[in-house]
Amino acid sequence: MFGLIAILFVVIAALGAGAVFVPRLLRSELGELQERTSNELSTRNAEFELRLQGLEQTLNTRLAASTQTTTQIHDRLGQMTQATAEMIARAKDLGKLEQALRPPKARGGFGELLLENLLRDRLPPDAYELQYTFESGERVDAVIRAGGRLLPVDAKFPLDNFERMAAAEGDEQLLHEKAFGRDVKGHIDAIASKYIRPELGTFDLAFMYLPAEAIHYELISGKTGALLTYAHEKRVFPVSATTFSAYLQMIVLGLKGLQIEQRAEEVMRYCAALQQEFGKFKEDFDLVGTHLARAHGKYADAEKRLDRFETKLDQAADEQAELDAAEPPRALGSADRAA
Q: Domains of the chain (ranges plus CATH)?
């Protein structure tokens, strides 16, 4: 019993000591925990503020870039609006041009103008002539001069039936297609009969210039190609602005080759003339050499004769001197004896 009481007393004493020590320990741990928490919170707050500053700078940069992009978009939209207005204005101008080109005579004049611009831009002025009139009285839109002969070029603009063919369908399209073929064949026949005149100095071919690329494409790549075959049989070659530029480039190269050939012929003729002059000079030089050789021989002979004559003169002088020294004059000798 006494032992149990002692144990209880010890437990009570321990509890009392614990009641005093535990609050102190808890206060110390809470203080340390509060200090660590405060430090961590300060560090986290500093990191959070740095991140907020970086995020703010990023947002400002993005906003500035977005503002600049928006400004550029507005500028581009303004430019597109202006370009659209210009396209609308040009479409109206093209509509006016289309209306102006409705009359066949106006289309012909427009085609001749485009042909003139192509020739002026690609060839030297002396390599072509506009509105050339043959001796027969026929007048072609242009001729290209190459190698002393003429290459006729005539502009044609068969637009009416082509537009009807492009706009129609079915049987109506076939009718307009046949009409377009008749128009093109008529132009081919006219060019072949009027302008391919070898007896008047032309080549055995001619160009038919088509200002519209669509018409040229239809002619050379139609359903059967019959129009192109017919044109080639007549020695007429259809060309558009694009293909004619390539032909003109080849012609320019050919003209340069002809110029080089002509210059070479001139050089050869000049060399032949120099050779003839050199031959004449050589004959004269040989003749002068012959005369000089003869003169030199005569001079040598004369020099020998002169030497011999001089030798004889010297001998005669020596003999006379000896005679004078050996025989004094007779008068002088008589005077000496008398004395």
A: 93-239 (3.40.1350)
